[in-house]
């Protein structure tokens, strides 16, 4: 944490006594670039500056990114200068490192904040502190913001950095046994309740061997049966008794019978319609 600003920016020179905040979190060039971006772009740039690679799966990275993004955006809305923005980000990182790396308690971290904010507003270079470029009003606003953003949630940040957490299982492998395909005489799925005789007779299709055996049995039965001479003589006599004229007369009689029935039905319906028309005409002629 805090790697992007390891080196001191050449544009930012600090004079005076020994500093409480020993290094710069973000360089002045990075602060300048962030100050020209909107909130979403600031979050994206900080993600790159902090080298967060697992933001979608790491709760720690997501919380830290929110911590720095919210802090920078608050300072920008306070109309801080570039030097003040840089110093404020240094302070955010300094207090968080005291908690994460040095395991400082809340009371000790508040003391470090007091040391860093000492002599705020003083213009004497010899006695200037780390954040002397803040006015008294700005320093009060900074302390109020740190109180609501970090110190009120100090226990949660301690838990984030120092409490081991169990890894959540996001996937699980299960062995599933699939049913075998239908293989007669065993029924297919969802048909287990059908009796075997009904299934064999009406549902399952005969196998090739069964079809072949039935065909051979039929041929053998046909070959084994001898034709009945009485049946053959009856069929010959029946066919011989029908002449060509009988066939033609039968062909004419069937259509004439059908047509005659249709004509009778049509005439009956016409008579009914004629009677209804006549009665309605008489009603119209008769006086009211």
Description of the molecule:
The protein has 288 residues and is mainly alpha-helical. The radius of gyration is 52 Å and the shape is elongated. About 4% of the residues have low confidence. α3 packs antiparallel against α4. It is built from eleven helices and no strands. Helices cover 59% and strands 0% of the residues.
Summarize it.
This protein is an all-alpha fold and 288 residues long. The protein is built from eleven helices and no strands.
Largest sheet descriptor: none
Cα-atom radius of gyration: 52 Å
- Total count of helical runs of at least 4 residues: 11
Mean pLDDT: 76
Residue windows where pLDDT falls under 50 for at least 5 positions: 6-17
The helix-and-strand class reads: mainly alpha
What is the terminal separation in angstroms? 111 Å
Please report the total strand number as a whole number: 0
> How much β-strand is present in the residues?
under 5%
Shape by Cα distribution: elongated
Fold topology:
Layout: H1 28-35, H2 39-49, H3 59-77, H4 82-100, H5 106-116, H6 136-149, H7 154-162, H8 196-203, H9 208-224, H10 229-240, H11 244-285
């Amino acid at each position: 944490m805090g790697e992007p600003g390891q080196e001191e920016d050449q544009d930012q020179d600090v004079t005076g006594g020994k500093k409480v905040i020993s290094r710069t979190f973000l360089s002045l060039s990075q602060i300048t670039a962030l100050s020209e971006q909107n909130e979403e772009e600031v979050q994206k740039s900080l993600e790159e500056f902090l080298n967060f690679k697992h933001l979608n799966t790491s709760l720690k990275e997501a919380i830290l990114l929110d911590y720095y993004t919210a802090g920078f955006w608050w300072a920008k809305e306070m109309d801080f200068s570039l030097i003040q923005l840089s110093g404020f980000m240094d302070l955010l990182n300094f207090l968080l490192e005291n908690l994460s790396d040095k395991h400082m308690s809340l009371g000790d971290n508040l003391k470090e904040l007091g040391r860093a904010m000492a002599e705020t507003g003083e213009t004497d270079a010899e006695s200037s502190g780390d954040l002397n470029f803040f006015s008294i009003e700005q320093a009060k606003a900074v302390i109020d913001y740190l109180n609501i953003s970090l110190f009120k949630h100090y226990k949660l940040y301690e838990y984030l950095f120092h409490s081991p957490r169990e890894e959540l299982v996001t996937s699980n492998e299960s062995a599933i046994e699939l049913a075998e395909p239908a293989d007669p005489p065993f029924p297919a799925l969802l048909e287990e309740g059908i009796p075997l005789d009904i299934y064999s007779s009406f549902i399952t299709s005969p196998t090739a061997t069964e079809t072949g055996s039935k065909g051979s049995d039929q041929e053998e039965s046909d070959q084994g049966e001898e034709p009945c001479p009485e049946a053959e003589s009856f069929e010959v006599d029946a066919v011989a008794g029908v002449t060509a004229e009988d066939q033609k007369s039968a062909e004419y009689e069937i259509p004439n019978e059908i047509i005659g029935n249709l004509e009778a039905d049509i005439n009956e319906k016409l008579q009914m319609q004629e009677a209804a028309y006549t009665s309605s005409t008489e009603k119209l002629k008769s006086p009211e």
